[in-house]
Amino acid sequence: TGRRDQxxxxxxxxxxxxxxxxxxQPYSNSALTEGFTVGAGFTQTREIVYKTSYDNKLLFLxxxxxxxxxxxxxxxxxxxxxxxxxHSFGLSFSNLSVNDSVxxxxxxxxxxxxxKTRQNxxxxxxxxxxTDVDNVAYPLTGKIYSATAAKRGLKFTGGINxxxxxxxxxxxxxxxxx
Length: 178
Known about the structure:
Blueprint: E1 6-12, E2 16-25, E3 34-45, E4 47-52, E5 58-62, E6 68-81, E7 85-98, E8 118-133, E9 142-152, E10 162-172
Antiparallel strand pairs: 1-2, 2-3, 3-6, 4-5, 6-7, 7-8, 8-9, 9-10
């Protein structure tokens, strides 16, 4: 469309299978202040981390068949206030399923904190980004900072329940000659 939109299609076949797409249009209105992203995908893997050991090592279950499958869809609304500020509101849904052997008593019967082999996950996120640099691709002067708040799961106790806060700050300045 000539508005820096991107269409990404990924396919992978072999030990891990993946097919996914995403479409981003950062400037979808005539004022060039709003945008959106949509995406979906399906992944199958032959190995899965089923728990950690007492000394914090990851324990893998490897199989000739695919041991887990993930289907996801996501969307985000992007709002640009001025030339330096950007807000992004995201929502995603994932459906993760594992083989019966993963939740057996041999491996991890509480993999999803239940005996179910399938779990639905909802993620909600908000990101604020401030960018004031001379060149976004390779900044020499200026500053960039961002903050993200994300919630996985709709519950506040038990089940899938995580909350993430992330902050980043960068300052750029010209080095003197020599």
